[in-house]
Structure formats: structure tokens, C-alpha cells
Amino acid sequence: MKDYFLNFYTSKIYQRLILGLLALLLVLFQGSFLQSYSLETEDNSPGFPVVFDHITLFNVYESNGSLSAQERATIITRRLNTIANDSNIEITDDKFDLDDRGNVIVILFDNKTLITVTADDAVAETTSRQYLAEQYLKSLKKALRAYRRERGHFYWVIGLISTGISLLILLVILKIFDFIFPYINSHIERWQGTFIPSIRIKNIELLSADKLTQIFKTLIKTVRIIVTLFILYSFVPFILGFFPQTRKISNVLFDYLIKAVTTVLSGLVGYLPNIFVVGVIIYLTYYTLRFLKFIFNEIETGNLHFTGFYSEWAQPTYQLLSWLTIMLAAVFTFPYLPGFDSPAFKGVSAFAALLFTLGSTGVVSNTVSGLVLIYTRAFQLGDRVKIGDSVGDVLEKNLLVTRIRTVKNVVITIPNSVIMNSNVINYSSLKRDLKSPLILHTTITLGYDVPWRKVHQVLIAAAQSTNYVLSRPSPFVLQTALNDFYVSYEINAYTNESTKMHDIYSHLHQNIQDQCNEADIEILSPHYSAIRDGHHNTIPAEYLPENYTAPGFRLDPVTNLFNQNNHNHNSVNDSVESHGN
Fold this sequence. Notes:
Pfam family, one: MS_channel_2nd
Membrane topology: Multi-pass membrane protein
Helix content: 55-70%
Family: Belongs to the MscS (TC 1.A.23) family.
Number of strands: 15
Shape: rod-shaped
Strand content: 5-15%
Transmembrane segments: 154-177, 225-244, 264-286, 320-338, 350-376
Largest sheet: 5 strands, antiparallel
Region (Disordered): 562-581
């Protein structure tokens, strides 16, 4: 036993199991540190944006007199829209001006106030008031010029040309997809059996190379669909962004896309610590199962032995411990799954538990009965058993049902709970466990006129001439009853072939008939009646002498009967007369 554990200690399974335990300890101590990272950034800025033509030009942070920062941003936006939408107003550089009034700098357009830049605004932006005013002025000029330029006829032509070019690029990309993805699929098919082998654990094939290839091809197809939908969705707001009239819709669609991608990436990165924990649990579970399989395979083959633990218990115990290990791993994994604390997850879990509770009563009963049958060793595969009224060989036994095949080649499935409530007669267990042969017996009844020693001799000879009956120990006869009209003789014979019981009984009965006939023994009881005078002997003709003839009836004529009666009457009269004299 020490050598097997030493081999396992130096094996890769043991090393990887230890590595997984160390990783789990790392998770326990570092999990909270890893969960502190996130893609999300908080914007604590108290400013209010000045949005013009769906573009944020700058933020207003401070109030000015009775106007709040929000009111200032709204007024600036309204003034810009008024200037931009008035086609009679030309937007040229000479109409913009900066007016430094000591405590404030006013940005003018056509001698009208657009923005007032205060010292508080400069402090909020951590710059000088003059520089801030110049930056504001530069942004305003650029935005107003772009607004007018984009609404010209020439820009529509540019937008249409850009749309056409973008459509061509889209078609080229989709055409490239039509080449790349089939090319990848063809390589995956060629890699089947080489770079994509079957996944096996020793001789057990968990996933064939063909199925694994189909999984990779399905994965590539899914990636193509996702990428194609992403490009098509991005193409729509991209085209709408060429035209100012639809740019708002374009921005909204882009915002939706960016928020969706950001949410997914943020959730994925935020979930990375949980993924790591789940991976470690799966890693440990896998190598724990391999460790258990190693131990119980050694027990099953007889290389590893524990007193009181039978080899046929190895696989059922391994399956039971495997299920317990997987269930324990699931319990540890569930808290790290996304949405574990959500009401929907809890509701589905409660509903599933309710269904399992209501529908598993019979399953639990059969499972418990199956475990009891396994560990009580009531029978094993191949044993000849009698369960209730069914006699046959055990084909299969599991935690739920047992299947037996009768001598008529009929397969009967019996729930384990039914077996627990029935008597189980095992005809094979003594031969398997104690090397003791099975005793088959049958009873014959004969009249008192037949010598019992002769009957014993005949029955033992019949048993010894029967196939599959052992000569040692010798067959023996028991006289089980002395009845009113006959004696019961029970012939007992030893055999090691419990699965041939029916053939042995049939041959034994045939031999008993032959031996009795040869010994001139008539089997007339228990239910046999005949008028023996004049009847043919019941022994078959081949066992009777060649000159045997059936005796006839002995009948007297009626006249003899009357003469006999007259003779008796005369005798009586003579007696009476002599007495009278």
C-alpha cells in the first residue's frame, strides 16, 4: 500500500492538486484586494455643460451674480443657437471680440454679449482669466463655423460620397468574412484528430475529436455572427453622423453601443476575481475526482486492500463520493456566479428545490434502497437470484433499479425499494464467497410396499447420472415424511452451476423416471388409483419382460353363484333338522 501512495505522491495529479490548494488559499487572502478594481470612473465635476450641435464645448462651474452655473450654461447655449440658425447673420472673425472690464472679461459677437468670464471661472479651471476667455472664444468660433459649413449644399455632397465609400468598405469587409471564416473552418476540419484530439481520461472518452471539431466550428460561426452584427450596428450611426440633421440619432446609437460594451467589459473585469475563484474550484474538483478514481481503481483491481472493504464496493463508492464532491463544489461555486443574489435567481432556485422535493420521493427511496443493497452485498452481477416470483440472472444494478434476465430471456426491471420489501434468494453467493456448492433437491413419493433402501439407491444413481451434479460430495436422500399412503423421499445433489438450475432439474427428473422404471418401481403416488386385477402394469413397455402379458379378469358364472347359495341353504336346513332330532 505504501508503494501505491508513494507513486501517487510523485505523480502529476498530486502536484496539481497541491497547486490548486495553494491557489485557493491565495484567493481567500487576496479576493477582497482583487475586487477593488473596476473600469468605472466617477465624475465628481459640479460643472454644467454648454452643448451646441450635440457637442459639449466647455463646462460652467461658477455662478455669476444672481445666475447659477446651470442658468449661465443654458443662456449661453440659447444664444449660440440663435446666432447659428439666423441665416442673415454672417459668422466672421471681425464680429468676435474680447472686452476686459476689470473684474470680468466679456466675449462679444456683433457687439452683443455671448459669455462673461469671471475670476471664479478661472479659479475653477485653474488657469488665468485671459487664457480661459481666449479658449472659450476659440471653441465658439470653431463650433459656429462648423455648424454653418455642415449645412451647406457642398457638405451634403461630401456626406453622400462618404456614405458610398463606407458602403463599399462594408461590402469588402463582409466579403473578407466570406473568405476568412470558411478558411478557418477548413483548417479546423483538417486539424481533427491531430491538433484537435479526443479528450480522454485513461480509456474513457469524454469528448470525441469529431464532437470537439463541431464545437469549434459552432464557436467560429457564433463569433462571425456577433462580429457581423456589431459592424452592421456600427455602420448605421456612422453613416448618420455624416449629416448634421441625423447626427443626434447617430450620437444616441453610439452612446447605446458604448454603454453596452462598457457595461460588458466593466462587468467582465469586475467579475475576474470570481472567475478566478470558480476556476480554482473546478481545478481542485477535477483533480480530487482523479485522486478518488485512482484510489478506487486500485481497490477494484485488488492492488490496494482495506480490511472489511470489498472490491465490488469500489465503483459504487467512487460514484457516490464523486457526486458528493461535485455537489460540494457547486455549493462553493454558486455564490460566485453572476446574479446569485438576485431575486430571480433565488426564485428559480426555490422553485427547482420545490419540484425536486415533490417529485423525488420515489427516487430518494430507490436510491437509499440501492445503497443498502450494494453495501449489504445481497447479490452481484451474474448471480442467479429469486426476487419475489421472478428467477433469473442479475444483468444490471444501480442506485435506482435492478434488472434480471429470466430463463426465458425476459428482462425484468425491479425498483430497489420493491427489492428491499421482498425476500431475495441468492443461489450463487455461497459458491462465490465460501466456495461451497449449491444443493438442489426434489421430492418423490412411493408406496410402503417399495423397500426404502432400494429407493435410496435408485435416487442416488439418478442424481449421479445427471449433468453438472458433483460426484463429491455425494448425493444423499432424506425421508421427509411418512404419510398415510406413501413415503416422501427427497434427493439432494451438489452442483457449482447455479445458472443451469432448470436444466439440472429437468435432467434429474428424467433420470429418476428411468432409474425407477429399470428397478421395477412404479411411481403411483400421491394421486394414482387403479383396479389392479386385470390392468396393465404402469411401467413402460421397454422395461417389461418380452413375454409379459396383461392378466385378465377372474369372473365366476352366475350359475356358480346360485349353486353356492343353494349349497349354503341346504347346509343350514340339515343343521336345523339334526338339532330337532
